[in-house]
Each structure stands twice: as C-alpha cells, then as structure tokens.
Design goal:
Layout: H1 7-27, H2 37-50, E1 67-71, E2 74-76, E3 90-99, E4 102-111, H3 117-134, H4 143-156, E5 160-161, E6 167-169, E7 176-180, E8 197-200, E9 203-205, E10 211-213, E11 221-223, E12 229-231, E13 234-238, E14 243-245
Antiparallel strand pairs: 1-3, 2-11, 3-4, 5-9, 6-7, 6-8, 8-13, 9-12, 10-11, 13-14
The structure holds 2-amino-4-trifluoromethylsulfanyl-butyric acid and cobalt (II) ion.
Length: 248
C-alpha cells in the first residue's frame, strides 16, 4: 500500500521540504577545495537541529552521520571523513530531515572548483533525468512512466543507470512504498494517486551501472569501473495535474 497523505499531512511534508531547502543554502557555499566532508556534515547537522528538525540518517541501520557525502566514483552513501575535497571533483550531498513527524529527502551534486566538461555534462544530464521523470507524474499515471523517462534520458546520453539503488516513497518513514527504480517500462507499475509523496532520485554513472559496496565500512557504494557518478533528488507530491516539488 502506497500511503496517500491528507491535507494536514501534506502541509507537514511541505514544511519539512522547506526546512531542507534552508539546509542546502548552508551547504552550497561550503563546497570548495580543502574542506573535509566531516566539516560539511557538521554544518549540515547543526543547521538541521537549529530548525527544530532531526537527522534520521544518523543511526539508521548504524549509519554514523547526518548526511551522505559522495565524491566522484562514490555513487551514494559516502561516509563523512577527514577526506578533503579536491578541485575538479564532483560531490553529491544527500540529506534527509524529519520535522514534526514527516521526512524530506534531497540530493545535489556540486562541482568542486573548475571541473571537466565531461563531469559537468554528467551533472546536467542527471538533473535532466529527474525533471524528465517528474514531468510524467500526475494522478493516474503509472510509476513505470516516470522510471522509463529517467532511464531514456540517461541512456540516450550514453550513461549507465545504477540498478542497485532506488528512490522510494517518503512520509512518516524515510523509506516507504513504492520502490522507485530509475529504469522501467511505460504503462507498468502502481498507479499514482493525489497525495502520494515520492523521493525521486536518479543515480547516473558516466560508464557502466555496476557498483560495489565497500567491504570495510559496509556503506560506501562505488562504480565498479571507477568512473564518476552523479545523483539528484527531490521529495515530490503527486497532484491531480502534476508534481509539486517540495524540496526546491
Ligand atoms: N538519503 C538516502 C535515501 O535516499 C538514505 C541514506 S541511507 C542512510 O534513501 F543511512 F544514510 F540513512
Ligand atoms: Co532518498
């Protein structure tokens, strides 16, 4: 069962989304060569708490930090550390917050200083994957419509769609039904209804889609071929006419 939110729940989802936008306003100016991902994480956590929200990633299945910060070939779930950003890298910052019982989840991939045109194109196409997918959302559409649009956008650009990680429903829990793969067939999957809330999050690799999880930390997800990956995510509300993006 995919939860459908009532008016007051939707208001709470909107407030959580707006709070997360405030957190990203703190993140953007921090992204520069020399800063450690631990420092970025500390500022994120501080801002979340100052908004009266909590950071549910911390402690989630033992995850140690408020945010996931993933550099270059790390697709998702990079654990903040003393590692500092280096000019030319791309870094994705994935943040979930919980406010008044409801969750918001979003990710941005940033360039560190000057980056190659190839990496910039990867960031741009990943963002386009999100928007082309979300354009398919409205009450009555099928989940596969959205998934297919994401896949086509990535693959026509020559990129790999990471299969092992997915988007998800979101609301009272960080992860709810449905699972949202970034590939699929139009006209398949559950029918979207007004009031459903979805975290749509294409994770797109410059090369192949195969990934591995770091054996030592159990989290860090890297591309197998070592090529960079980008990630773009927003929490969206399904409406009669389309999608309302709650985190931008
Ligand atoms: N933000 C991630 C998602 O989209 C969740 C991160 S896993 C955690 O589902 F351990 F950090 F919580
Ligand atoms: Co998510």
């Amino acid at each position: 069962m995919i939860p459908v939110r009532n008016k007051s729940e939707i208001e709470k989802m909107r407030r959580a989304g707006k709070a997360l936008v405030e957190v990203f306003k703190v993140v953007e100016p921090l992204i520069r060569p020399g800063i450690s991902t631990l420092e970025i994480n500390a500022e994120i956590e501080k801002k979340i708490l100052s908004l009266g929200a909590t950071a549910p990633c911390k402690g989630y299945h033992g995850y140690p930090a408020a945010a996931c910060i993933s550099i270059d070939d790390v697709v998702v779930h990079g654990i903040p550390s003393l590692r500092t950003l280096v000019e030319g890298e791309i870094v994705s910052v994935d943040i979930v917050l919980k406010l008044d019982g409801y969750h918001a989840d979003a990710t941005r991939t940033y360039p560190v200083g000057k980056i190659s045109p190839a990496k910039q194109r990867l960031i741009d196409v990943t963002r386009r994957c999100f928007y082309n997918g979300v354009e398919k959302i409205r009450a009555g559409a099928r989940l596969g419509d959205l998934q297919h649009a994401i896949q086509m956008t990535a693959e026509l650009a020559g990129y790999g769609v990471v299969r092992a990680m997915t988007g998800h429903g979101i609301g009272r829990e960080m992860h709810e039904e449905p699972t949202i793969e970034n590939y699929g067939r139009p006209g398949t999957g559950p029918i979207l209804r007004e009031g459903m809330c979805l975290a749509v999050e294409p994770m797109i690799a410059m090369g192949g889609w195969e990934v591995s999880i770091d054996k030592r930390d159990g989290w860090t997800c890297r591309t197998l071929d070592g090529l960079p990956a980008a990630h773009y995510e927003n929490t969206v509300l399904v409406t009669a006419k389309g999608a309302e993006i709650l985190t931008e």
